[in-house]
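Re: [ENG-882] Designed sequences occasionally contain unexpected residues at chain ends

Forwarding the minimal case from QA. Structure tokens:
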């Protein structure tokens, strides 16, 4: 396994040290996709502790960040395992935009998408038929899970929650019905919920926040990785496979990735 070489670096120059016996190594770098529970998350220890404490204490939390900050990876690879260690029953992450059907008098497409997401991990022989699922409310479904499992603490996670706003921008009627149902479900004190979304959509969420018991006032901002955290994200996966990712190479890679193009007066462009 060889760390990605930044532009301008020749591995033969000795900047990157490699273990030459690599046949038993697996690649710990997943590429441009979210980490799962099977992966380790590096560089986010503080954020995981803070978010875990906030969610446990406040029960309803809105996690927001710039695009690409790694919300889904943080949730999957770190927060969910931490919640399970605290003996929470963590449900399958929910997306509100997976419903293949349009709204009708029988169901709300955002509610239906939520329930379809939750049913994905249920064994096929125990899944609720879609026609029946389409007529259920969030409260009836979630209360059924709480009672069937005899749970004292269940966590519902909405990932990429900005989809409630972007999928059909003019569908205000069904959005409001979804938030009313969600607010009603959250009166159950055994239910915790985390909403994760891009922060540029926070303003558009405001008209619906009043339906939620806390008005979504408990928030946590996940920033982009700092330098030291980015170095850990570069080097520690290699270390887990007994491969040495040299400091010089890691620093050069991180410095390259954190550059931005800034336009100055006189139309000149500068790397900062």
């Amino acid at each position: 396994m060889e760390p990605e070489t930044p532009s301008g670096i020749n591995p033969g120059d000795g900047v990157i040290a490699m273990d030459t016996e690599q046949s038993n190594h697996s690649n710990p770098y997943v590429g441009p996709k979210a980490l799962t529970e099977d992966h380790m998350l590096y560089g986010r220890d503080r954020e995981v502790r803070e978010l875990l404490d906030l969610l446990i204490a406040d029960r309803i939390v809105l996690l927001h960040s710039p695009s690409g900050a790694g919300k889904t990876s943080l949730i999957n690879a770190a927060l969910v395992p931490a919640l399970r260690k605290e003996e929470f029953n963590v449900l399958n992450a929910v997306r509100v935009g997976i419903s293949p059907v349009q709204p009708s008098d029988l169901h709300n497409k955002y509610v239906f998408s939520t329930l379809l997401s939750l049913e994905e991990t249920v064994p096929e022989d125990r899944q609720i038929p879609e026609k029946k699922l389409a007529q259920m409310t969030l409260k009836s479904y979630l209360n059924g899970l709480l009672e069937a499992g005899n749970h004292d603490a269940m966590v519902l996670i909405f990932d990429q929650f900005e989809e409630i706003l972007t999928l059909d921008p003019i569908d205000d009627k069904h959005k409001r019905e979804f938030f009313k149902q969600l607010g009603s479900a959250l009166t159950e004190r055994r239910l915790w919920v985390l909403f994760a979304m891009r922060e540029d959509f926070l303003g558009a969420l405001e008209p619906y926040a009043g339906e939620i018991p806390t008005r979504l006032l408990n928030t946590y901002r996940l920033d982009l990785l700092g330098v030291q955290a980015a170095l850990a994200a570069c080097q520690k996966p290699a270390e887990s496979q007994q491969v040495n990712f040299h400091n010089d190479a890691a620093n050069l890679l991180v410095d390259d990735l954190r550059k931005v193009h800034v336009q100055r007066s006189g139309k000149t462009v500068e790397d900062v």
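QA comment: On inspection the terminal residues look reasonable. Residues 45-221 form a domain with the Rossmann fold fold (CATH 3.40.50.300). Proposing we downgrade this to a documentation issue.
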